[in-house]
Amino acid sequence: MMNKMIVGNLVHRPLRSLISIVAIALEVTLILLIVGLCVGMLNDSKARQAGIGADVVVMPPGSAYIVGLTGAPMPIKIRDVLAKLPHVVAVAPVVTNVSAKGTIEVINGIDLKSYESLGGPFRYIHGGPFQGPDDALIDDILARSKKIKVGDTIDILDHKFRVSGIVEPGRGARKFVAIERMQDLIGAYGKASIFYLKLDDPANADAVVDEIKRVPGMETYVASSMAYYLSMMTVNHLPLQALHCERDSAGNDEFGNRRYRGGNPDQSGRTRCHRQPLHSARGHYRRLAAGDDGDRNDRSDPGCFVPGVAGGAKGSD
């Protein structure tokens, strides 16, 4: 009886039944397409990160496990501190930036010598390394898909670069520029997004991570072995949090370093940063915009960062 009622209802209103079937099929198809695209991009990013050749990665406090989403908040002089740790053979600072112009892509600003010390020299299919500050390297996949040749001019972050070399894919990104030029383009002078460490033995990765956590001022930095870092690059760890910051009357950040973000040097306030759910952060920003600071002297500063080791690296924006 029940089956006859269902069939009879479908047949009685065929147009409504057809529209319902098509709508449900379209929704399911779009969900599968989006999930498949997301998983595919994550797997591609994971494979290219593994190809860098690092054993340990160091990122800013509160970082997500997706490269390119943290900006460049860390002083590059942290490299010197990391290089002195036991078992560390090489340290490569990298400035990453996500470009959504045309297609979503991660662009790496690298120091070529230190970057190649991680996984060996780039294998050049055509051309060679940087010859000047406005040279760029691209991988073979990008070159073939866009029909780019050595000597061609390409646009990266609204700046013209000459392609000096085409390299084999799988070394972290599809476009590489000199780290100094990347810092200049995004206004991150003397800063880095991530540090890659090469060790004398990958088996020492956990010991080095523990050493990093014991360095004064780096207790909250995200340090992990490359194996663990890659295992965390899943859809379950996509960043769904925002950074909430407060400042005290001393004009210092939580490590005692003077920083003035989002204001002039006459403004004071200690910058304290912590992660909170995105919907909560948005509500806090809306309250501040309406003039309600919750009877507190803090201010939201989404552009803040936590620098520093052993008293911090001095500087201002």
Note down, in words, how this protein is organized.
By secondary structure, the protein is of the alpha+beta class. It folds into three domains: 2-47; 51-234, no CATH class; 240-317, no CATH class. The protein is 33% helix and 23% strand. The chain is globular. The termini are far apart. The model is unreliable at 240-317 (pLDDT under 50).
Structure in a nutshell:
The protein has helices at residues 2-12, 14-50, 78-83, 112-119, 140-146, 179-186, 205-214, 226-231, 278-289; strands spanning 56-59, 74-75, 88-99, 105-110, 124-127, 135-139, 153-156, 159-167, 175-178, 191-192, 194-199, 222-225, 241-246, 272-277. With 317 residues, it is α+β, with helices and mostly antiparallel strands. Strands 1, 3, 4, 5, 6, 7, 8, 9, 11 and 12 form a 10-stranded mixed sheet that branches.
Q: Could you tell me how far the N terminus lies from the C terminus, measured between alpha carbons in angstroms?
A: 75 Å
- Unreliable stretches (pLDDT < 50, length at least 5) are 240-317
What's the total number of strands?
14
Shape label = globular
Based on CA atoms alone, the radius of gyration comes out at 24 Å
Number of helical segments? 9
Give helix and strand order, one letter per element, not per position. HHEEHEEHEEHEEEHEEHEHEEH
Q: How many independent structural domains?
A: 3
Oligomer: single chain
What portion of residues belong to β-strands? Answer: 15-25%
Q: What is the averaged pLDDT score?
A: 77
How many strands, which pairing sense, and closed or not: the largest β-sheet? 10 strands, mixed
Given helix and strand content, the structural type is: alpha+beta
Helix content class: 25-40%
